[in-house]
Amino acid sequence: IMNRFKVCCMLVMLYCLPLLTIAQTMQQRLKNIPDSIFPYLSQNVYKDIVNSPLNETATMVNVFGDTLRQKRLTNSDLEFETQNFKVQAKLLVRNLEKDTILCFVKTFFGPAAESEVRFYDKNWCLLPSEKFVDLDTLQLLACPDTMKLSVFENLCSLIEPKMIFVFLSPTEPVLEYEYSLPLLNSEETKKVRAIMCKRKLKWNGEIFN
Question: Could you tell me the pTM of the whole model?
Answer without folding.
Answer: 0.83
